[in-house]
Amino acid sequence: MITSEEIKRRLWDGANELRGSMDASRYKDYMLGLMFYKFLSDKTLETFKVTSGLENMTQAELVEEYSKAHVEFGEQLDKMIQNVLGYYVAPEYLYQTWIKDINSGDFEVQKVTDSLNNFERTIAGYDDASDFKGLFSSSTLDLTDTALGGNLNERSKNIKALILLFADLNMIALQKGDVLGDAYEYLIGQFAMESGKKAGEFYTPRQVSEVMAQIIAKKTDIKSIYDPTVGSGSLLLTVKKHLSDEVQKDLAYYGQEKNTATYNLTRMNLLLHGVRPEKMVINNGDTLSRDWPEDPERPNEGVQFDAVVMNPPYSVKNWNAAGLKVSDPRFEVAGALPPDSKGDFAFLLHGLFHLGQNGTMAIVLPHGVLFRGGAEGEIRERLLEKNYIDTIIGLPSHLFTNTGIPVAILILKKNRETGEPVLVIDASHGFTKVGKQHVLFEKDIAKIVDTFVERREETGYSRLVKREEILRNQYNMNISRYVEAIDEEIPQDVDAHLYGGIPQQNIDDLKVLQSTVPDVLNESLKEVRKGYVELVKPVEEISTLVFNDPRVLEKSKELEDEITTYIHKQFDTIRNVESISTLPQLMENMLDEIKVILSAFDNIDVYDGYQIIAEIWKQSLSHDTEIIALSDFYTAGCTREPNMVTRGTGKKTRVEQDGWIGSIVSNTLIEKQLYSDELEEIETKKSRIQEIETELADLVEAAKVEDSEEANALGDTLNEAGEAFVSKALKAELKQVVKDSVEYKHLKNVEQLLSEKSALNKKVTADEDALKKSVQERILTLKDDEIDNLMYEKWFGNTVNALVRLIELPLQNELNTLQMLHNRYADTLSAIDKESRNLESAFEALMSELVVES
Fold first, then answer.
1. What are the residue boundaries of the N6 adenine-specific DNA methyltransferase N-terminal domain, all occurrences included (predicted)?
2. Given pLDDT bands bounded at 50, 70 and 90, which one contains residue 547?
3. Which residues of 413-441 are buried (b: 16+ CB within 10 A; e: fewer)?
4. Number of domains within the chain
């Protein structure tokens, strides 16, 4: 059983190994194009198998039967498959035929070129196959490109290696549950990260797509969706993922892309994700220079969509090469033409023009659109006057691989109620730094989406801004004008520095302690003068009182009970997963439910808890539930697979098997739970080895001390570096010294220590090998209750404690603040002055005692 994560890892490792020095943005066209051709070949064979009633055949046998049938029925068979799929791949041009030629030594690069050209010819004249036309054009897949190899032999070798990368993947089986689509999308994302600045041409980072998609998907009656700068189609597909199966079934996808290679990539991506050809209309064209799609019956309205999503190129210069006027129906609503030096509003107005009256639009743009003046200021004013701008979401900088600038997501609607405020969200501080990039975690995305849905106001994060305030700011929508960032730095108090004491206001600001254990806090303080207090107990003692307080313990126990019930319920649900297609909904339900549970408890950061569950999915559940869905929980629990490891370096790198690992059950957990005695024995031996090493290290140091007993006895037995004893030298010295002498005892002691260490090391190695083999065999005979215990520990072993800890965290943070305040004002200025004067007096006294001798 191969999971999507394993496919992703294998394909990306293969890509890195095979592409050599070729630019990632170019290599992706070859890799993803050939991967898609394998999909087309597999679909052709699958259709032939089903329509011919052939079952239980190997792929080689199926290819042979298809070849025979093609000889016998020819064009009739071609048309039959074409009617089902909209295309067909002839037997001599199948991907499987390439593999056969490679294995027999008859492969030629020209055969691949011929196959791709033949595919183009087979669909010519078929309207239903328009979505496949031009997919393998020479501008996309030029197999004569010297970047693939300096000569024909090198190109042939590299293309063969790439073909073999997909040889054993059953694209039909992988398409079920979107495993194939996920792997394809993953590769696009990885190539984007490797491509740097060029990535912006074809990819929207997953985290940004997720924010936009989840917001769009909150509208349940979506029948059509449009992306005018569609890139690789990732935005459309992310929205698709968050819609119900019923909505997906009838959803129509529209997109336009200027770059031909990327346009081809879009179509491949959508088809691999199971989007039916008749449900997708993707156009290769310039969105701004010529409006698309148009409605012939209503040329001034354009085609309207329920949802519009966009990540256009930022601040495009000379966007109006076509000489468009403000009379263009797309720009009429704004009353002004966007400046030629910046095309941001041109893209926005195009998308808005195609937005249905009850639709929702989400677009990513640089922050400049919120405050720049001139024509852009006029356009912004008109959009606000018409009440089209619904929400502005400020995102962190460095989210994109191709630019470090911060961006904003604008949500637009045409049916907003009169006087409805604009929601402004400042999410620019909610990120985690990973390398040079800033990353939105699942908790950050969830908080943005929840704030949008609930129209929630939160100090320092979000505000509902009324029209009157926007007018006062002259339609400047710069986020900092409406959402003031919280300064978490506690101001310095001059009086406290001069005279001591902690300002009472700072104590009043400890809201969690004040609301949870006010008496414990107040009894730990005494007033030193009006408005100032000091601690009568150390913070460590106060902490003990706080965390052992019955109110805190009761609250922790209540949450513990809730979480335990929640986990037992989820565990039962996960064990009974039957379909990969249900996994996204299962994860969403699990994440939503933890938010509901945690929301009932005051002072808990709900989104920290959300992230804990999201991490469990990321680290293990996504992988394990996929395997469970493909078989069943207990079968998967006692299934093992080869543990493949990479050994060697450079040209000697090789992948080989190193024993077995459980498909879902962790070998390490089996050791801990079922072989604890054996583990303990091994640990005891290792501890003794460490003790011996410490004794030997001490003796080595003693042997370096001149004229010591150890030096006289052991000095000549050290190696040249003087870091260890040499066994051969020890034996030689033992033969020369008198038995039972001091020297003999020292030498014999070291010899025995070395001998014991050697024996223990051999025993540990043997014990670990035996334990490893026992564990690998035990996987196959695990009982149901053992699998239950092992998997519960793997998934949720520390989850209760981690979530209950959320009650303690805000209390601990405020106790840390209390300690900081105490330290800050512990030494007053007068005390420091006094100490300084004392030091000066002591120094002067010392100077007077000094006698200068002539």
1. 7-164
2. very high
3. bbeeeeeebbbbbbbbebbeeeeebbbbb
4. 3
* Eight-class DSSP state of 617: I
Q: By residue range, what is the domain housing residue 98?
A: 1-198
pLDDT digits (tens, 9 = 90+) for 720-729: 888 999 999 9
Find, among 449, 447, 385, 368, the residue nearest to 422 by Cα. Answer: 385
- SS3 state at 382: helix
Place of tokens 């349940």: 220
| Tokens 């603040």 -> residue | 817
Closest CA to 803 of 570, 637, 643, 647: 570
Three state DSSP letters for 654-673: EEEEEEEEECCCCHHHHHHH
State pLDDT tens for residues 66-109: 999 999 988 899 889 888 888 889 999 999 999 999 999 989 88
- In whole angstroms, how large is the CA radius of gyration of the chain? 35
Encoded tokens for 516: 């949870």
pLDDT in tens, 130-171: 667 777 876 667 787 777 777 888 888 888 988 888 888 888
**294 and 175: one domain?**
no
User: Does residue 526 sit within a domain?
Assistant: no
Q: Look up the CATH number of the domain holding residue 92.
A: 1.20.1260.30
DSSP 437: E
pTM over 0.90? The answer is: no
Q: Is residue 541 part of a domain?
A: no
Q: How far apart are CA 232 and CA 86, in angstroms?
A: 22
Taking alpha carbons only, the member of 505, 579, 816, 786 closest to residue 670 is: 786
Together in a domain, 249 and 186 = no
**CB–CB of 175/181 below 8 Å?**
yes
Q: Is the pLDDT of residue 632 over 70?
A: yes
295 compared with 536, residue with greater pLDDT: 536
